[in-house]
Amino acid sequence: MSVMTMTRGFCLAIAASACLASAPSALAETITVTDLAGRTVEVEKDPSAIVLGEGRMIYSLALLDRDNPFERVVGWKDDMILYDPDAWRKYEEKFPEAKDIQRLGSPYSDEWNLEAVISSGTEVVFMNLGNLLKAQESGIIDKLEAAGVATVFVDFRQDPTQNTVPSIQLLGRILDERDKADAFTDYYTAQMKRIYAAVDKIPVEDRPVVFIERAAGYNPNKCCGTFGSANLGRLVELAGGRNWGSQKFPGFGGNVSLEAVFADDPAVIIGTGANWAEANPETTAVLFGYEAAEDAVQERLAALAEREGWPELQAVKSGRFHSIYHQFYNSPYHFVAMQAFAKWLHPELFEDLEPEATMVELHERFLPIDYSGVFWASLNKGS
């Protein structure tokens, strides 16, 4: 071997070593976590490139990456853009670079661009616990693992009252924002506990039956979806009500006939709504969100109460006909919904509770966007 060849080889080795030394992965710290699916996962701490299996995970990410919730995000699903456009425009105005994030579709279907995920240098993909079975059946977890990309499941939908704190703490560990995670989960726990102690003292017979109409008016001629003893149904129970759907479904929820609702004539009715007008122009839902106005909310709420047969229900007659922002069902902010429920169900007991003040404080202390709009309402008796 010539001296020139040896020298060239030595120089190449030095160059390769230098490249490895400067590569981010060489310096990255790997941690072992247990996700909300109970899976043990090796994941890079403080990743710079993440993918969101659902765009509405921004609700959670914004609590931790407050300076810019989109800074790490290299790909996501466009459900937030489609189904919560008010929130999307609020964030896009402050973080215009967010519009350039790749829209990858659903990670559980053939539409998902796995090549784009890998080529973007993605270190971790966050997925929803409710889609664990779909992810397993599609094989996407194994495909990502083979490409060196971790998958981590969090949950703000299946069992939010139990899984919000561990999900935020898990995100805090991975994103290296544990102090912010601690601050929010302490606040979350304190807000939930404002209701627990008082509700424990309410006799069962004094807890009104509540029917939740899930996505009320989303499809104008379709009724009714509701929750079992989960998600918003569970919040009703924790807020001092008896959730009508819990008697009908052992699980998350499902569809019921309008005749069944009319026959039982529940004391309280709470619909859910959001700005779905862009995703479904025919919707008659209450368009709650950051751009909602009180007059428009009341107009939509009154129209729902005037559907055929509904004016005869005791909830409508007594003014116990309400509606709330649908997206609370999939965000760590659901304690605000629970406070609104408690106020509606037991107004005297919770006279001093102010859900709107809580919502304002949530934004001022923990979120990078300002509070605006309307997120819940009760039917005006004069409507």
UniProtKB/TrEMBL annotation:
Signal sequence segment: 1-28
Domain annotation Fe/B12 periplasmic-binding: ranges: 49-353
Coiled coil: none
Record-linked InterPro entries: ABC_Transporter_SBP, ABC_transptr_periplasmic_BD
Gene3D superfamilies recorded: Nitrogenase molybdenum iron protein domain
Pfam family, one: Peripla_BP_2
Keyword Transmembrane assigned: no
Keyword terms: Signal
Name used for this protein in its record: ABC transporter substrate-binding protein
Organism: Roseibium sediminicola
